[in-house]
Amino acid sequence: MKRIVALSLCMMFTTLCLTAQVFTSPDKQLKVELSNNGGLAFSLTDGATTLISKTSIGMDLQTSTGTINVSKASIVGKPTQKTVKEDIAAPLYRQTKYSTTYNLAVVKLNCGVNIEFRIFNEGVAYRFVTTDIKGSYKVLNEQAEIQFANDYNSYIPFTTNSKKPEAMAFQATYNVAPLSRQRNLLAFLPATVDCQSAKITLMESDLEAYPGMFIEVSGKSLKGYFAKYPRTTSYYQWRKQQYVTSTEDYIAQCTTNRTFPWRILAISHKDTEMLDNNMVYSLATPNRIGDTSWIRPGKVAWDWWNDWGISGVDFVAGINNATYKHYIDFASKYGLEYVILDEGWYVPSSGDLLTTIPEINLPLLVEYAKTKNVKLILWCVFNCLDDNIDAICEKYAAMGIAGFKVDFLDRNDQTAVEMAYRIADKCAKHHLLLDYHGIYAPTGINRTYPNIVNFEAVFGMEETKWTKNGEQDMPLYDVTFPYIRLQCGYTDFTPGGFRNATSKDFQPINNNPLTMGTRCHQMAHYIVHESPLTMLADNPTIYESEAECTRFIATLPSIYQSMKVIDGKMGHYIVTLRTDNKGNYYVGGETNWDARDITLDLRFLPAGTYTAEMALDGVNADHVATDYRIQTLTVTNTDRIPIHMASGGGFAIKLLKK
Prior knowledge:
Structural class: alpha+beta
């Protein structure tokens, strides 16, 4: 009898372990089916369509009592499920506040680890949580292999460093091809797969004290890969930039039970819905710094891209006080909030941020800028700031410096991610804002530390300084990356180049750089991109000679109340609508190298009369890329405006409430 009972219990337990657990989105459209038959895995269906046939997930943990293979663990009991609605305050984000609803499922495993799922109408996220592991432990590896139902077309940004693929600036154009024909090379996030009925974008959120995810393409699958924990490091002499020279045999070390990063599968049925997705921000740890009223968004007169190339002045232009006073005067004249001192204000090879070069007198520049209602931001290398962060923050906060543009992290192993959090926390305590350059794509840290007001992680306009004609197609990239990369958050693209060139005329020039596409294509960036701290990349001499366009972009808001793509197709064109807190509307549009005609339907406007100030491609912009016209109309929500975008063109429109 006892043997029969024992056998029955064993059969019941086995049945429980092998029974699939089903979780759905609030609208019932998305369905996640989790099983542990041969290893933890889930499928994902969208209505009647299977998007992902199997996602194998797991972790290997080395604890004081042995190794835990989470993938082989058994599900214990019935998962807890509930519907959660959150109202999220989002200072400096693409919308100042929003509400989100998701279904939460917590799956308990028999190894001291839980899996949490959050299923939104717009996607699925999961993470691991250790709940009952004693003492410190190491994560040897994490498994995440997504097997798509078919050989779908994919948009993959591959590493730019084939010799050390984990060490690069996370900026590359997308290789567009079916999964089976993608390159055999490490790639970084975000990446998008076009499943025909929907697009899936792979991202991560709440990346803290843990390495970021890379991906490898294998057949119809994307497989997660994680940088190993650094054992030893050294420095590149030119900038004293830290780099990894050897690694441990694990990816992370942990001192207590913790939550791990969210893995996100964002789902969009239309290209115009892709930027409606807020999952990265929603899943991140909320604000840790409290009051954010001191964080001032704005526009920046920037020196590096234009190579300090001012002319018509009575001093030698370069990294010196006279040049920066000139930039400050320009910023003040056009109402720009900031001037950046980029690389060269301290000796880069020294890594000493506390000592300026003799040609720079920072206290004098800060006081001069103060009289002009302008603040200064200082460029530096991540580890050089981190190495002496207390003294640096104390000195420059007391001096009146607004913050730092922090560059050349160029990795996302655990110690690099910890550095990004450590710097954000220290700078917040001193009311210093941060522009994270040379870093991985945003993973929600800007929700946790809102003093981080921008990130690079984009193939930005700086690349045009050395990109040969035909090597890269910037107008194509400009109407592709907003759909994918902007789902993660802000981007420091550094727009505003006014030396504009057609496809035929473009060539790389370092000290007088050109941009691919028209003047209005550049002006549209200020509306299409999400960027609370955005550059005016060209030099004051050029901007003064093009004062009409300069005033137009300088008077656009730096942050908006809402953001919506109202027309477009990824890789072809994009039209973005934004609003401010005064009842005004802004529309920016860009096209690839194909000239394009659209009709802007103003039915989104409330009742009333608006003044439309429109920057449009000129009639000759197809072969003279600097050609534009500014046109002013009185409009209402019954109007339809025909717009022609030239090859590589665009437009920017202000709709100002009368």
